[in-house]
Amino acid sequence: MQPPTGAAAPAMEMPALDPDTLVDVLNKGLVRYYMLDCGGKSQDMCILRHPNGLLVLSLAPSHSLLQPSAPRVLEVQFPDSISEHEAFGKRGRGGANLLPKTVLADISLSDGSRIHVQAGIEGRLIELNSALREQPQLLQSCPEDEGFVAILQPKRPQDVPRILAKLLDPSNYARMRPGHVQTYRHHICGTSGPAWAGDTKASAMPTASLDAS
User: Fold this and answer.
1) Number of domains observed in the structure of the chain
2) What is the mean pLDDT of the segment spanning 5-19?
3) Which residue of 36, 147, 152, 192 lies most exposed, with the fewest beta carbons within 10 A?
């Protein structure tokens, strides 16, 4: 029986989304690597390698700031020498050249202490997460999503194997940090995540864009 002309069609009932299935979709294409004690004891970092070749730096589950007893993050500051040299344009020109010990962020904590987040790897700075200036708590509540620290790009394609060789894959990370199994959950907060997440059309690190300026 057809509904009367002009009558609204009955609403279609949408099936409930399985959270685990949703996480699998959002994680598709991301490869995780880890660095231990990056600049200090238990300052472990996670590097997400995106299909477009970019490397997203965030706190690892075993980082001291993500433990139950950790003090709250009150403020995140980025050094002027770094924040004034983010990349621009589609080819990522102008980004600061980073070394493993380059400080990317200075974090003030509720117990009065401070932590410096280091780059941990060599690369070119593409973007610092400016949202952390206004919402520093994202560093702890959404470390792999809205709370990521920075986006980097290897300077040259041939640098990638050397960079990855110094990092831990998930299985070795689990062995080195037992009890800190990755339980990543993408936070659905009305956004699709950082800007880098949607750029899957870019070729993986084209040579022309990685030549030193």
Assistant:
1) 1
2) 46
3) 192
**Structural domain boundaries, residue 152:** 29-174
Report residue 164 as tokens: 């990855």
What 3-state class would DSSP assign to 160?
helix
- Indicate whether 112 belongs to any domain: yes
What is the percentage of the chain residues whose pLDDT exceeds 70?
A: 68
pLDDT digits (tens, 9 = 90+) for 164-193: 999 999 999 999 999 775 544 443 333 333
In-domain check, residue 115: yes
Q: For the domain that residue 38 is a member of, what is the CATH number? A: 2.40.50.100
Evaluate whether 138 touches 44 at the Cβ level (below 8 Å): no
Note whether residue 165 is domain-resident: yes
Q: Which of residues 9 and 201 earns the better pLDDT score?
A: 9
On whether the CB atoms of residues 51 and 204 are closer than 8 A, the answer is yes
d(CA 190, CA 201): 23
pLDDT at position 68 over 50? yes
Contact 87, 54 (CB under 8 A): no
pLDDT at 179: 79
Q: What residue has token string 């924040």?
A: 83
Residue 185 lies in a domain: no
